[in-house]
Amino acid sequence: MIGTLAGIGAVAVGASFAGLHTMVPWSQLYGANFNGEALPSRRLALTYDDGPNDPHTLHLLDVLARHEVKATFFMVGQFVRQRPQIARAVAEAGHAIGNHTYTHPNLIFVSKSNLRRQLEDTTKAIEDATGQTPKLFRPPFGGRRPGTFAIAREYGMMPVMWRVTCFDWSAKSNETIERHANRQIKGGDVILLHDGGHLAMGADRSYTVRATDNLIAKYKESGYEFVSVPEMMG
Asked: How far is CA 220 from CA 29, 216, 223, in A?
């Protein structure tokens, strides 16, 4: 009886451990992914999910241009279809673009065939809008399971996660976003922010735009360099 209970407990712990790693951004358990470079590093990579978003992606492009910073945008295919001109503006400004699926589902619950369709439809939307084929992939919510990243690699895309979470999707001020960032940044970090919202076009990301402006100014003054994910990957 004791042996049986111990066995059940071990299975439960194992399942809990495995379940946790479906969402932990820096975990490598379900496939290798890039989330930053090793210390010591004075480089930071800003990344933005869930766009293109009208009008805040364009406002963000203005901030990045003023600071002469290149970032990485993980785009949702259905929004690229809705605003191809914004996706094109991101590409023309020299920023990197990644695949963030077509409808932003949690991939923990998505079949392999549906995942392939999500990736293919998004890549096609990005190609049609920008003329570029995305070489980076980020799963919505960070959710993945065994095989998710392997399928992305079949399409020539490197999985990219992050080490700094700014919680900007629920922030009530730009100061809140900045506090989250300042508490976590150590150098060599991929930083998660959002220029859109996965539910619909038009999500208010004005706090993210302001926070971006302030964070770049602060960390540049401290001697950090901002690079795109492909630049950080080398």
From this structure: 34, 6, 5
Helix axes 206-221, 56-67, angle to 10 degrees: 10
Q: Give the pLDDT confidence of 3-33 residue by residue, as tens digits.
A: 444 433 333 333 344 556 688 998 999 999 9
Residue carrying structure tokens 């901030």 = 63
Whole-angstrom CA distances from 186 to 84, 87, 156, 164, 168 are 35, 31, 30, 9, 19
- The tokens describing 118, both together, are 């999500």
Residue 115's domain comprises 2-233
**The CA-based dihedral angle spanning residues 119, 120, 123, 129, taken in that order and rounded to the nearest 10 degrees:** -130
Q: What is the pTM of this model?
A: 0.92
AA identity, residue 230? P
Q: What is the dihedral of CA 207, 210, 213, 218, to 10 degrees?
A: -80
The contacts of residue 5 (CB under 8 Å, 6+ apart) are: none
Catalytic annotation, residues: 49, 194
Domain containing residue 212: CATH number: 3.20.20.370
